[in-house]
Design a protein that fits this description.
- By secondary structure, the protein is mainly alpha-helical.
- Helix content is 50%, strand content 0%.
- It is built from 5 helices and no strands.
- The model has no long low-confidence stretch (mean pLDDT 87).
């Protein structure tokens, strides 16, 4: 497939407007139909103020229990106060979770 370079012609702009609101999937489909990259389609749509729905960012992991809560649970399991082991808050969450599991 050869990608076009340069300006969009009126029929291509009409195709963009008729597909509104655009998203990444529609931009990829239009890109194939118009022999243009999806990024080019998105850029042109934004410059023409055609509504574009951004893809939601994917987070690497879901936030679990806050570390302070894990340290408090560890302190309770060790029958000590949280202040005496407050430095554990600097440890990574996985290690704290493993320690809590080992104590329980």
């Amino acid at each position: 497939m050869t990608l076009k370079t340069g300006k969009f012609d009126p029929s291509e702009i009409t195709a963009l407007r008729s597909a509104a609101p655009l998203n990444a999937e529609k931009a990829a489909t239009l890109g194939r139909e118009l022999s243009r990259s999806p990024r080019s389609i998105i850029s042109k749509a934004i410059s023409l103020e055609i509504p574009y729905e951004k893809k939601q960012a994917v987070t690497a992991s879901k936030r679990g229990t806050p570390k302070a809560d894990l340290v408090a649970a560890i302190a309770k399991g060790l029958d000590t106060d949280s202040d005496s082991i407050a430095g554990l808050v600097k440890a990574d969450a996985r290690s704290l979770s493993n320690l809590l599991s080992a104590i329980a």
